[in-house]
Design goal:
By secondary structure, the chain is of the alpha+beta class. It folds into two domains: about 240 residues, D-Maltodextrin-Binding Protein, domain 2, CATH 3.40.190; about 210 residues, 3-Layer(aba) Sandwich (D-Maltodextrin-Binding Protein, domain 2), CATH 3.40.190. It contains 19 helices and 15 strands. The longest helix is centred in the first third of the chain and has 21 residues.
């Protein structure tokens, strides 16, 4: 360790000497590849302070704790990073989606220093900041890079005025439809740039649903991809004019049981219980129902575009995310961020990795080869609007999604108690889905959250 520090000092002195000779600033951007147009135009004073590991006698290995569902992305992305950052190796620890959050809570709660970088779901960043589990990313990004991030993504990665998680991805939602099912029902589906109201969705769902002579539903009318998750359902309440939480991040009474919430929850209930156009159980999820031809409409993320393009054997299309008639347009947003463990033994190397993965080359590669979640950088999102690669369906559906991500995103609430918020919300909407009165269920939601949030006040 001492030898490594000495070598870094020597390297820094050499760098300063060269700067004097060449009359120019000597500072590394942390990568040899262009990050973005904005970054390329940044001045030397706008260069981040994170130094590239140079002159080390042995490789430093950093460990990234992330989703197991992303394993298909490697080794291409990791190899690209390692090639441009000699001296740094990346080791993966992969956990299934259902267990990742609990693993982070368990290991960080036990002061586990073996993890250097974590994939953090955006709304959980505040809770990690509250517990001081993540290092501030001061000096990691240039001002141009920070300006290139979507503002909603920067807000989600910030706690107490400090950025503590780099925005890696963002997201949005689209309405997918089975064009053949619509044609059979004699209904014209929306165009890819149209935005139906929720009322139109409910009406069409009843008409396109197909029930056999035996009473079995052969083609369901509608479903949400994440049937009880706040990520996907909060826009119902948002479109009705509701807030997601109080300004203090803890107040829920008078908000989660307000008229807009009752309206959104009642519509949700009606789709399952009144119109009966959505399946109450989870024996088969929405994307599988859709790709198999057993679902006429699905609200889901743009990550399903490649799935349906490859596997669907019928004609299908997309349109903009629905909203309530007379209401506002509100779409889901937010995705994964990267944070550095406050106990990491290699914080500088971990920060270099976070920066590379969340800017320019790394961000685009991650979208193309990794999670397929949309990048959180406006410069990369602009590619969808200008590149011929996305001019024809189904690739052009990515262009629609990119526009949605920029035009109408409403992030999930920023609260130190989001873990509790998420779980109690899911339980509440599962109850509503299976017949509990919406207003009654929402009051129970408020009461339970007030009890859980008391420890944060």
């Amino acid at each position: 360790m001492i030898r490594k520090k000495i070598l870094k000092v020597i390297a820094l002195l050499a760098c300063l000497l060269m700067g004097i000779i060449l009359f120019t600033a000597c500072a590394s951007t942390g990568t040899s590849e262009p990050v973005s147009v904005a970054t390329a135009e940044a001045t030397a004073s706008d260069t981040p302070a994170v130094a590239t590991a140079v002159g080390t006698t042995e490789d430093v290995t950093i460990t990234w704790l992330r989703l197991a569902e992303w394993s298909a992305a490697d080794p291409a992305i990791i190899q690209t990073f390692e090639a441009s950052h000699p001296g740094i190796k990346v080791k993966l620890e992969e956990i299934p989606f259902s267990d990742l959050v609990s693993q982070i809570n368990l290991r960080f709660g036990a002061s586990d220093a073996s993890i250097d970088v974590i994939s953090a779901d955006a709304p959980l960043v505040a809770s990690y900041g509250y517990r001081r589990w993540l290092l501030p990313l001061d000096g990691v990004y240039t001002q141009a890079e920070l300006a290139d991030f979507l503002p909603s993504a920067v807000k989600a990665g910030t706690y107490n005025g400090q950025l503590i998680a780099g925005p890696q991805s963002t997201s949005t939602q689209l309405l997918y439809y089975n064009a053949d099912a619509f044609k059979a029902a004699g209904i014209t589906p929306p165009g890819q740039d149209d935005r139906w109201t929720w009322e139109q969705v409910a009406e069409a769902a009843q008409k396109v649903q197909v029930v056999g002579a035996d009473g079995k539903v052969n083609v369901w009318g509608f479903q949400w991809e994440q049937t009880t998750a706040p990520y996907q359902l909060l826009p119902l309440m948002g479109s009705a004019g509701g807030k997601y939480i109080g300004d203090d991040g803890l107040t829920v009474d008078g908000i989660l049981n307000s008229a807009p919430w009752v309206k959104g929850a009642t519509f949700y209930s009606d789709m399952f219980n009144k119109y009966k156009v959505a399946p109450q159980g989870d024996a088969v999820n929405g994307p599988d129902l859709f790709v198999n031809g057993n679902l006429a409409m699905l609200v889901a993320g743009p990550w399903q575009i490649s799935n349906f393009a490859t596997n669907a054997t019928f004609n299908w299309g997309v349109s903009r995310h629905p909203y309530f008639k007379g209401g506002v347009v509100a779409t889901a947003t937010g995705s994964w961020h990267l944070g550095v463990n406050s106990l990491s033994q290699h914080p500088d190397e971990a920060k270099q990795f976070v920066r590379w993965m969340t800017t320019g080359t790394g961000a685009e590669k991650w979208w193309r080869l990794g999670s397929h979640d949309f990048p959180a950088q406006q410069s990369v999102l602009a590619m969808f609007a200008t590149s011929d690669e996305f001019s024809q369906p189904p690739a052009s559906y990515n262009r629609v999604a990119a526009a949605e991500a920029l035009e109408s995103p409403v992030p999930r609430p920023v609260t130190v108690g989001y873990l509790e918020y998420d779980q109690i919300f899911r339980n509440t909407f599962q109850d509503i889905r299976t017949g509990t009165d919406p207003a009654t269920a929402l009051q129970t939601l408020v009461d339970r959250l007030n009890s859980e949030f008391a420890k944060y006040k």
